[in-house]
Amino acid sequence: MSTFADPIDRIVAGNRVYAQTTAERDPNAFEELSKGQAPEILWIGCADSRIPETTVCHCKPGELFVHRNIANCVHADDINAASVVEYAVAHLKCGGANAALSDADLGTTLNTWLHPVRELRRKHRAELEKLPNDDARAVRVAELNVHQSIDVLKQHPAVKRAVAERGLSLHGMIYDIGAGQLRLLEEAGGKKGNGLWSPANK
C-alpha cells in the first residue's frame, strides 16, 4: 500500500526517484534525451494502465513514439491519431511546442492540430518576445498549452460531474526532458494547477 495519501504526491515522489536513479546509472542520460528523439517504432496502443509500453517492451525513453487511446483504435476521421502518425512519419525531429513557435507548413493535419497552440503563441506574443531564446519560449508555450487544455477539460461534462460528485482533483504538469523531472504548474495566486493533463514536454 502506498505511503502517500495524495496520488499526485506519489507520482512526483516517484519521478524524483526515477530521475535520481537514472542519473546515477548514466549521468548523461537526460542530456542525451534532451537533444532529440529518433525512435524507429510508432506504438499505437491501448490506454489501459496495466500496459505501459516501455515497461512491457523493456525499452528506454526515446525508443518508442507512442499514441494511446481506448482500445487502440485508429479511425479515418480521428485528427488526433492522424496527426500523431504524420508527426511520427514526417516530422519526428521537431518538438510539438517548438513546431508551434513558427507558422511553418507541416501538412494539413499537423497544421490543424497545432492551430490552437499557434493561436496561444500569437495571443501571448508580447510575453514570449521578452524571453531570452526559443527554448524558453517553447517551455512557456508548453505551459500555456497545458493551462488551456485544463480549461477545456474543466468544461467536459464527465469532468464537471466528477468534480461536483466526488471532488475530482486535476493537475497540470511539465516534464523537463533534460532533467528527467516533473514540475507541477501553479495557477495565478500560487496554487497548484487545478486541471488534468498529460505532462507536456519541456
UniProtKB/TrEMBL annotation:
Q: Does the keyword Cell wall biogenesis/degradation apply?
A: no
Q: What is its EC number?
A: 4.2.1.1
Checking SMART domains in the record gives: Pro_CA
Q: Which cofactor does it need?
A: Zn(2+)
Which InterPro entries does the UniProt entry name for this protein?
Answer: Carbonic_anhydrase, Carbonic_anhydrase_sf
Bound cofactor: record note? Binds 1 zinc ion per subunit.
The protein's superkingdom reads Eukaryota
Q: Which Pfam families match?
A: Pro_CA
A Gene Ontology BP annotation from the UniProt entry = cellular response to carbon dioxide
Residue ranges annotated as coiled coil are none
Q: Which PANTHER family match?
A: CARBONIC ANHYDRASE
- Family according to the record: Belongs to the beta-class carbonic anhydrase family.
Functionally, this protein is described as follows: Reversible hydration of carbon dioxide.
Q: What is this protein called?
A: Carbonic anhydrase
